[in-house]
Amino acid sequence: MRKFFPILMLAMVSLFIFSCKDDDDDQDFDTYSQVRDVTGTFTSANTYAITQGINIESTDVVLVYRYLGDSWQLIPKMMYLPDVTGLPTGREFQYNFVFDTQNVQISVDDQNFNLATGLNSTEANQYLNNQRFRIVLVPASQAKGSNAVDYNNYNTVIKYYNLNDSNVINTKVN
Questions:
Q1: What pTM, to 2 d.p., does this model score?
Q2: What is the pLDDT of residues 122-140, one digit of tens each?
């Protein structure tokens, strides 16, 4: 019995050591970064807003980027339109978004003119029709000791969170 007691004690101590859990509350392991595209047209019928359903944890961060043809621009973003004969002067509007745990709503908020009558057809095509947005879901906490991510730079965000954006799901909404 005396020979088994040291072995039994060693086994108990080993079990105790390996069963200890090192909780790192700065890590967010329950969030999986995701990328999704949504394309839609802003009209008075949809109150210049498009909604995309998505499951979001309350501790996550949602980033939304607008596609500019060769790059992604983080929104919210204020747009200042040049003066055009026959249209109001000083036209400005903002791409904006809000989200909750089930939806992301992207909107165009007109600041000082009516979007329905204050844009010519070229501007409506450029700013309202078939607009493509990329929704990026990332954990709110960052790795311990890391530098802050520049969320304005889409490529930096994709690289930092190791996201594959080569085959993104694209949803068309009305």
A1: 0.77
A2: 999 999 999 999 999 988 7
